[in-house]
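Hi everyone, sorry if this is the wrong subforum. Our group has a chain we'd like a structural model of before ordering constructs, and none of us has done structure prediction before. Sequence below.
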Amino acid sequence: GLEEGAKNQFSTFSNFITTINQKKEGIGNRNSPAQLLIPNIKNGRDLPPLCLDVRQKQRMSIDSLPQELKAPSPPEPSLPIRTKTVKDFQDDVEKSKASGDWKAVHSFYSTTFDSFVEINAAFKKDTNSPFNTIEDSGIDAKFVNVVYDALLNTPQDVQKSVLKGIINGLLQEWTGPRSKDDLRAYCILLQNPQFSNTSTYVIYAHLLRQIAALTEADHHFLVHWSKKISQRRFKQVVDRLLQFISLRLFPAKPEEFPPMVKCTWWIPSATKVLALFNAANSLISPPIISYTDFYNSTLDHIDLMEEYHNWQCYGNSHRFSFCQYPFIISIAAKKVIIQRDSEQQMISIARQSLVDKVSRRQKPDMNMLFLNVKVRRTHLVSDSLDELARKKADLKKKLKVTFVGEAGLDMGGLTKEWFLLLIRQIFHPDYGMFTYHKDSHCHWFSSFKCDNYSEFRLVGALMGLAVYNSIALDIRFPPCCYKKLLSPPIVPCDHNTLVGICGVTLDDLFQIMPELAHGLSELLSYEGNVEEDFYSTFQVFQEEFGVIKSYNLKPNGDKIPVTNRNRKEYVQLYVDFLLNKSIYKQFAAFYYGFHSVCASYALLLLRPEEVEILVCGSPELDMSALQRSTQYEGYQKTDLTIRYFWDVVLGFSLDLQKKLLHFATGSDRVPVGGMADLNFKISKSETSTNWLPVAHTCFNQLCLPPYKNKKELKEKLIIGISNAEGFGLE
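Answer:
Right subforum, don't worry. Here is the predicted structure as tokens:
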């Protein structure tokens, strides 16, 4: 980092700030952020929207622009000739380290970063070539990396000269659109490691502000150039932006920064630039870094509901909200938003029921505040279907389940078991609704035609109720299912609009039917004559109840041969048929069932992967984490019985560990926040050691008698967790 003197120097740029503020008046601030959209790429993947507008009721589309964008490009200024190579620079650094004379290195840095023109002169691969396409930024990445890697190990006066040069570049008078050389300079400056130091944040903020205020066309280039940055450098830039946002929100030393009222644009600018990198990341398959690397856990500690309500009320036009950029909000924070939104809806529905009852002068009944489901274990699916169909108006009330003939009171445990048993029955192969694919270990919708798809609606409603009531389900759907579930994320008002239809690829089919997908992939890469060797047409065959049926992938498909020229079209139509068209009615019922419970603008914030985590929790069991977070009542964690317990549990197979979790909590899935979110408790049971352990799944509580030895504890525990179906009162 910079020495104290440098920090003081760069914290007093009052003239610098005033000058830039005057020049950038009206570019946008925290209260009126510019809406950032990126044009489509010609012959490439669509860029995702940078900024999410809730008022559009669905994910925003992007206006198309040709690859060479319509904005006129200003002429590039002639660049000075700079002949220093990577090796020359490295030799200069080694000589300076040996001699202590940094004059040559200082001269290079102060000259190179003195202006955008000089940055291009040093780092442009060929100063005579324009490099004005999205495919190649023209930046000599190796040279940039070497120069930045050496920078933090140079004397402070060298580092100061770089920052002074950046200030000169930012203070340049801008007239008209930016040139590609300007964009190259921005791309290079964003990678400067000096911006990890808080003493440089004033300069960094103005750099981010200028980049955020660029045109859509300029953002288009920056996104495509950014995806060419190496993974390590890419993540460093992302981490630097996240740190900048975190420290502006919660500064360790507030005196280091200007007052928040004078720099309300800092956070919106940084978030918008981060959105460019998120867009770049999504263009690569597989992505450069995980989508979770864009999460900022600091946001878990702000008033998320205020952010959510601002976004709902104002969209993108009046007030900045992190919800406009949901990629930055962690899944734990999104879960909080969805839970609180659900709770508010529950309270509102229950209050309305109470008002209606009182207005009719009827005696209020506590049961009217809940979605009460009464089922028989022997008729679980049919009873559940009937109950949910009869009580459509109550789906957004708090769920309470009663098993007929059992004395258990539902404080949460019965609900968990109802979900678990119902899912187990519905997904059984004999039931015929879903097909289990052993190769991919997941279920997919049966394409068999039927007269009534209400049971698919039930499964969708079950998933919605699980999310709504914060219960994790053991459902194994492929990622494609959750992508379809968010297509669109808000139910369209026009009932003729298709739902659950999304763009699918061979990669999606690989996740469900890998053997078939591999065969289609072989067809695409086949070097012989496809028409003569495969003798296929644009027609597919499916077996339904022992009868082979044929379907045309396009009009007169049975008469159109598959050739080397049209095989890509054939594969795409085949994948679309399997994952969209052949199961449309089944999935549409499933979609409407889910959204009948979970209709919320909060779904706009979610990625398909995040919906899966909310529905299913995490299958990864970390019993050591559970041990660290467990609370005790009547025991100390050092007691012999507790030590025996954890020795036994940590030595269990995964299957037995899941059974223990199911026995004690009613579910074998881990919630979004990890084991700590279970609030697991072990209580001392003052009963005979001949008794088995008892669980209160409503409270995630295990009552453990003080067994005398480890062998006895293990035997009783295994018997208890292996026979854990049904509820009763002692």
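For your construct planning: Residues 53 and 315 are 5 Å apart (CA to CA). Residues 617-723 form a domain with the Hect, E3 ligase catalytic fold fold (CATH 3.30.2410.10).
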